[in-house]
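Researcher: Checking consistency across runs. Here is Acetyl-CoA carboxylase biotin carboxyl carrier protein subunit again:
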Amino acid sequence: MYRISAGEKSFEISFSQGNLLIDGNPFDGDFSEISDRQFHLIKNHKSYRIEVMSFDKAGKTFVFRINNQIITTSLKDKMDLLLERLGMDHLTEEAVNDIFAPMPGLILDVQVKVGDEVQKGTPILILEAMKMENVIKAAGDGIVKEVLVEKGNSVEKNQVLVRF
């Protein structure tokens, strides 16, 4: 399953028994490949010429020209959607200032203290959740301003653990 977003619009694409589903409904148009980056679509008696203009290396952002209109889209795959459901989709954006608990759990170890300088990837703490130990790491460089938990604390999902 994939979720595609373009501006305010968003829809899910999945495949079931070889059929393309859009938001759970069978696709009722005609789609054909012209070349590696060019496609033709007919839907509701309208014709669309689609050209892939560019995409990022991760394959998450695409720029299309559809009938001479430029549209930028973002793509989320199964893993992105799972992280989103678990509340872990914004960790990299928010971690520069704060580290949040991605899920309820128990703090097994805190590996930083106020004033510590950390680089991206530095282990910050260990959170036990669902019988698994999760090493929470720094998403960027920074200096620890405040540690709000200590070993043995129970935490709730999205609780602030460390501030930078």
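Researcher: Does this match what you'd expect to see?
Model: One thing to look at in this run: The chain has a mean pLDDT of 86.
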